[in-house]
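Hey, can you fold this?
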Amino acid sequence: MGAEPLALEPDLIRVFRGITTATLATVLLKKGLRNVWMRGARPLQPGQPRVVGRAFTLRFVPAREDLATPASWGAPISTRAAIEAMPAGCIAVADAMGVVDAGIFGDILCTRMKKRGVAGLVTDGVIRDLAGVLATGLPVWCQGTAAPASVTGLTFVAWQEPIGCGGVAVFPNDVVVVDSDGAVLIPAAFLNEVVAAAVEQERQEGWIMSQVEAGAPLPGLYPPNEETRARYEAWARTVR
């Protein structure tokens, strides 16, 4: 169903693991993309690693009594079938419409995702079976937990189609980076230019932080004026 999943190059994964979502959000802002941070997608527990991968999208709509039943879990279009289509390294991004009283995934589904090598789960909804999900080791970003099953409030309808998650448009194979600040989306078409700009911004902000720690005042330093940029460039030439 939907778009064919694509792999993300290992070199890009390595680079993005060293870049914060805050930096990425700023880089994307400079490129005119303001709406890239998925609202409500918070780390399920502290200390989760930064995760990078291409988006594998899942879409829920409001529950309809003839469709949202326990029997639907065995249907050809189901969360179970979608999980079997997830490639290793992807990030499952689920549009749950912000519903917080129906858990879209529990411990069994998360265990299967972990076994398939899925890198993480991001949703604007909630999960259930908290203790079991935590035991799987699958990194999850969501709005919290709820005991009721997904069909009490949602109907699963599709995977690998464009969705909205936390107010952000997510297309299959866009790149998602998630850390303690939440989930940021990088449109696939912007990937290469964002990598270059983000690496440079991380380097520059690291140098600025060293100046602040040395006692330098902020005006003219952050953001840098012409004199500061010249000093930074002189330093950067020694480390590039």
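Oh, and this one too while you're at it.
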Amino acid sequence: MNKTLLIGRLVSNPELTKTSADKSLVRSRIAVTRRYKAANGDRQADFIDVIIWGKIAENFVSYAKKGSLISIEGEIRTHSYEDKKNKKTLHN
């Protein structure tokens, strides 16, 4: 089963876009603070790209803004491709 729950803050204001098939989507990034502190005492964060689809995306842009604390439940997907030099690259 591929299920994840992330809690973090929005890095920028979300923007609603539409696909060529007129489906709503939001691409955004959230900063998720790590549980443990670094050696200097600061907490580090991971910056994770998220995509939100459909009616949820439309509602999301109405209520969320940069700095909002949000939780997202979904699945993790990775994609890979080969460039012109046949070098394989993995993207989340």
